[in-house]
Amino acid sequence: MPGYVPEELLHPLLVELAAAEFEPQERDYGRSIQNIESYELHPPFPRHPIVRAIAESLQWFEDYDPEHVSVHRYAAGEVGITPHYDLKKYRVLIAALTVHGSAEFSLVEDPDPKRKLPSHKVVNARRAAPIIRSWETTPGDLMLMRAPGFAGMEDGRPLHQVSGGNAGGSRTALVFRMEAPA
Ligand SMILES: O=C(O)CCC(=O)C(=O)O
Ligand SMILES: [Fe+2]
Fold this sequence. Notes:
This protein is α+β, with helices and mostly antiparallel strands. It has three helices and twelve strands, in the order αββββαββββαββββ.
């Protein structure tokens, strides 16, 4: 969804996010490889009013109330996160907002769409992945991905990857997720 967050909010949002410490993450992310720094935010987001407003705005979708928010920063370069599925425990939708910078986001051909194999047999960071569709994310874009439980589907998670920051710059993204109630 291009322009989900209006341009005039993006700079104040970036300032809001810059107040915390990003932490470098392990390069190995399950079976994929990542090159990111990140931190987590928690409801009711007392020091992040714009994040709270965006999280609330996402509740238009039935049963969607994301309470996990990760702030990601990707260095400029080729690898952001290589092909992966998001964890199964996150339900209904994953919503990723580009706040600053841009990247190449790709849907990757899934050798096991019926989910017959364990995911470690499917995801292999060292194997070149055939790309189904690729686009550039730019500031304000919101990307929605199916998670288990979406529209009654048991598991329609797409295999996907994201590059590092394009054009020699870093990219900052906010990723919203919802865990099923225990
Ligand atoms: O940076 C993004 O837009 C998406 C990141 C992603 O795929 C993930 O955190 O699992
Ligand atoms: Fe992901």
